[in-house]
UniProtKB/TrEMBL annotation:
<feature type="binding site">
    <location>
        <begin position="195"/>
        <end position="197"/>
    </location>
    <ligand>
        <name>NAD(+)</name>
    </ligand>
</feature>
<keyword id="KW-0862">Zinc</keyword>
<dbReference type="InterPro" id="IPR026590">
    <property type="entry name" value="Ssirtuin_cat_dom"/>
</dbReference>
<feature type="binding site">
    <location>
        <begin position="101"/>
        <end position="104"/>
    </location>
    <ligand>
        <name>NAD(+)</name>
    </ligand>
</feature>
<keyword id="KW-0963">Cytoplasm</keyword>
<feature type="binding site">
    <location>
        <begin position="221"/>
        <end position="223"/>
    </location>
    <ligand>
        <name>NAD(+)</name>
    </ligand>
</feature>
<keyword id="KW-0479">Metal-binding</keyword>
<keyword id="KW-0520">NAD</keyword>
<dbReference type="Pfam" id="PF02146">
    <property type="entry name" value="SIR2"/>
</dbReference>
<feature type="binding site">
    <location>
        <position position="239"/>
    </location>
    <ligand>
        <name>NAD(+)</name>
    </ligand>
</feature>
<protein>
    <recommendedName>
        <fullName>NAD-dependent protein deacylase</fullName>
        <ecNumber>2.3.1.286</ecNumber>
    </recommendedName>
</protein>
<feature type="binding site">
    <location>
        <position position="158"/>
    </location>
    <ligand>
        <name>Zn(2+)</name>
    </ligand>
</feature>
<feature type="binding site">
    <location>
        <position position="70"/>
    </location>
    <ligand>
        <name>substrate</name>
    </ligand>
</feature>
<dbReference type="InterPro" id="IPR003000">
    <property type="entry name" value="Sirtuin"/>
</dbReference>
<dbReference type="InterPro" id="IPR050134">
    <property type="entry name" value="NAD-dep_sirtuin_deacylases"/>
</dbReference>
<feature type="binding site">
    <location>
        <position position="67"/>
    </location>
    <ligand>
        <name>substrate</name>
    </ligand>
</feature>
<feature type="domain" description="Deacetylase sirtuin-type">
    <location>
        <begin position="1"/>
        <end position="254"/>
    </location>
</feature>
Length: 254
């Protein structure tokens, strides 16, 4: 029996399923990963040097401009076929949750609700000083002209500079998001890990945590990232092709 057949049987039998997604699923919608070389105005910059508190302190206008550019990318991108699968599976009556490392809103736009963002979201900024969330008008979030630097808006509470509400390098994950994710991962019957690199911890530990809790682990990736566990299945290929095929194999009418 192939891993695809075994994976479809696991989905059919499961009452609760968690999709754990990484940059690979959004890359198919045109959003570059941190391993991709940047293009255009940002080609000479290293994303890992921009996504830090130190970089923001040194040049907040540069980092805010980078944030606006990334947000513009996500608003222009569209959910792909892989993003649609969790909500379609939920329509079969199963409890389906999404835990993502991505900071875009493509899962929500594809119909998933209650998405847990381990690394924050580009949807709303927060204050660098007092950490309170902030709301901005669409005009304030538009990429302005051809320049790379844009002075960040100020917090209405403390007048601190606003920053993206995402987890930068060397920062801890949001406690509430991590706790919620752990509750989902340790109680699900199937974890579908999609497009994850297995590099950024502690999120990278989630597949092993699910296995240790007794779940069946289904990997969907362009390369073999399996851990050689008996309850682990490896489906190699693009998420936008493999996930719809898996759903069709498990539920032909879904």
């Amino acid at each position: 029996m192939s891993d695809m057949q075994r994976a479809s049987i696991a989905l059919q039998s499961a009452r609760s399923v968690v999709f754990f997604t990484g940059a690979g699923i959004s890359a198919e919608s045109g959003i570059p990963t941190f391993r991709d070389k940047l293009a255009g105005l940002w080609a000479r910059y290293d994303p890992q040097r921009l996504e830090t508190a130190e970089a923001f302190r040194a040049n907040p206008a540069l980092v805010w401009g980078w944030y606006l550019w990334r947000r513009h990318q996500t608003t222009q991108a569209q959910p792909n076929a892989a993003h649609l699968v969790p909500s379609r599976l939920a329509a079969t009556g199963r409890q389906v949750s999404v835990v993502t490392q991505n900071i875009d809103d493509l899962h929500e736009r594809a119909g998933s609700v209650g998405v847990v963002h381990l690394h924050g979201s580009l949807a709303h900024p927060k204050c660098f000083a007092c950490h309170r969330p902030a709301e901005l008008s669409e005009e304030q979030l538009v990429v302005q002209g051809d320049g790379e630097e844009v002075e960040p808006p100020r917090c209405r509470r403390c007048n601190g500079k606003l920053r993206p509400a995402v987890v930068w390098f060397k920062e801890d994950l949001p406690r509430t998001a991590w706790k919620t994710a752990m509750e989902m991962v340790t109680t699900c019957q199937v974890l579908v890990s999609v497009g994850t690199s297995g590099i950024v911890t502690p999120a990278a530990d989630i597949p092993e945590i699910a296995l240790a809790a007794g779940a069946t682990l289904i990997h969907v990736n362009l390369e073999d990232v399996s851990l050689d566990n008996a309850n682990e299945l490896m489906l190699i290929g693009s998420a936008s092709e493999v996930l719809p095929a898996l759903l069709k194999a498990a539920f032909p009418t879904a």
